[in-house]
Design brief:
- The strands form four sheets. A seven-stranded mixed β-sheet has the order 13-11-10-9-7-8-17, with helices on both faces. It has a six-stranded parallel β-sheet with strand order 3-2-4-5-6-12, sandwiched between helices. Strands 1-14 form a two-stranded parallel sheet.
- The chain is globular and about 65 Å long.
- By secondary structure, it is of the alpha/beta class.
- The protein has a domain of about 190 residues: Rossmann fold, CATH 3.40.50.
- The chain is built from twelve helices and 17 strands.
- Helix 3 packs across helix 11, helix 7 packs parallel to helix 8 and helix 9 packs parallel to helix 10.
């Protein structure tokens, strides 16, 4: 089956790739994308960066480790999962490279406006040799700073414009989080099987609820990979997605989860920052899967695990490249094999029997490259199998060798297809 675009909004997802948590600690629609123009630019970027990991930027001015300074611009703080994960990656890098406290400078709670540009330039003025920013809406401001400070390396998570910019000191990075979402889906599917076996739910009523932020590719890619993981062990499952239209809102996420549970969903997952969904799941006694951080403290009787990203591999690699004076990728995206993705600890009080063994099996297959998350034999669209997929305005074939090649032609997620078995609610 041939399939082009579903909607302009879905295509915007290729560009509005704010991570699930890209909205930070407060509600933010600024991460929500830049519409059709940005989508077209992202398509160009996919062509520019074809091959993904192969493209490297220009020369990097080396910095002696003892003189090095590293700057970080965060949309939130340690109290929300997305920034907490980025901060952990930074601290792991600091320890791995033996940097001192005064060599790492952090700007917390930086909104997606000109404040981000001011923060970047201030860090450069303080002598930072490399600067990281973690929110989609920061990107245009980071680009301006990169133009002003050509000897400083700028690295932006979740964006798409580095390859288009022509700047040798501008970089985008992400991870194959769809892999860990798939694994967390396997954990969820095994729990559903247990519930069926115990008579807690019938096979014809196995409906999963998913709290999503926005209808963008990164969210669609995430909930689809989770669902495919669920269905790999529980083929009876269907899924309903409810959007909050916010990256981070406890109230909206809890409200969405409550609505999904009221609508018959017997397990809840999320692509959103807060503990709102797990809080609702715990109150209702419904199993749940989180994101970024373990939700066991919030939902001790219902949390199974969470899909997680480890940013340390990239941050360490980029900083080491500056120390060595070596060029590094314009677009970087890695996964389980490189230690950039995982799931958080399994809640032994809640998971189904033999979950640990199955998780190890699936993780090993992903790492070995024998399991492809978006294997086209495992899903249909309108009752038909996909054998080709090209986005509007770009001549890049995403499907080959029997699977959709996610995050290969650029670091940002591209899968934006609504597959059979999933329904969505956007209000």
């Amino acid at each position: 089956m041939k399939l082009k675009k579903l909607t302009v909004l879905a295509l915007a997802g290729l560009t509005a790739l704010a991570l699930s948590a890209c909205g930070g600690a407060a509600d933010s629609s600024a991460s929500s994308g830049s519409g059709e123009t940005a989508a077209a630019k992202s398509s160009e970027a996919a062509t520019t960066t074809a091959g993904g990991q192969a493209q490297a930027a220009g020369d990097v001015k080396p910095a002696a480790k003892e003189d090095l300074k590293v700057g970080f611009i965060y949309i939130g703080d340690e109290n929300e999962g997305y920034t907490a994960a980025h901060y952990k990656g930074a601290m792991d890098m600091k320890a791995a490279l033996g940097l001192s406290d005064d060599q790492v400078i952090i700007k917390w709670n930086v909104p997606e406006d000109e404040t981000a540009g001011d923060a970047a330039m201030d860090l450069a003025d303080q002598g930072c040799n490399i600067i990281f920013a973690n929110s989609f809406g920061h990107e245009s401001y980071i680009l301006e700073a990169a133009k002003e400070y050509p000897d400083v390396q700028f690295c932006h998570a979740t964006g798409y414009q580095a390859a288009l910019s022509g700047l040798s000191n501008m970089h985008n990075y992400f991870t194959n989080v769809y892999e860990s979402r798939y694994v967390s889906g396997v954990v969820a599917g095994l729990k559903l099987n247990q519930m069926i076996e115990e008579g807690k739910v019938s096979k014809d009523a196995v409906k999963v609820g998913y709290v999503g932020a926005y209808p963008f590719a990164e969210v669609i890619s995430g909930y689809t990979s989770f669902f495919l993981g669920v269905r790999s062990v529980c083929p009876e499952a269907v899924m309903e997605v409810k959007y909050t239209n916010s990256w981070s809102s406890f109230d909206l996420e809890k409200e969405a989860a409550d609505a999904l549970i009221s609508n018959g969903c017997v397990l809840i997952s999320q692509h959103a920052d807060t503990t709102g969904a797990p809080t609702a799941a715990e109150a209702a006694g419904v199993p749940c899967v989180g994101y970024n951080i373990s939700m066991i403290a919030t939902a001790p009787d219902t949390a199974l695990t969470s899909a997680a990203i480890d940013w340390a591999p990239y941050v360490t690699y980029a900083v080491q490249s500056v120390i060595d004076g070596k060029a590094f990728e314009t677009d970087w995206c890695q996964g389980y094999k490189e230690g950039a993705n995982s799931i958080t600890e399994l809640n032994q009080a809640v998971i189904a029997p033999k979950t640990e063994e199955k998780v190890k099996e699936v993780e090993s297959a992903i790492t070995a490259g024998t399991l492809h998350v978006f294997d086209t034999s495992t899903f249909t669209v309108g009752g038909q199998k996909l054998d080709t997929y090209k986005k509007d305005g770009i001549d890049v074939e995403y499907i080959s060798d029997g699977y959709f090649h996610e995050s290969v032609y650029g670091s940002a997620p591209a899968f934006d297809i609504l597959i059979d078995g999933i329904t969505t609610i956007d209000n």
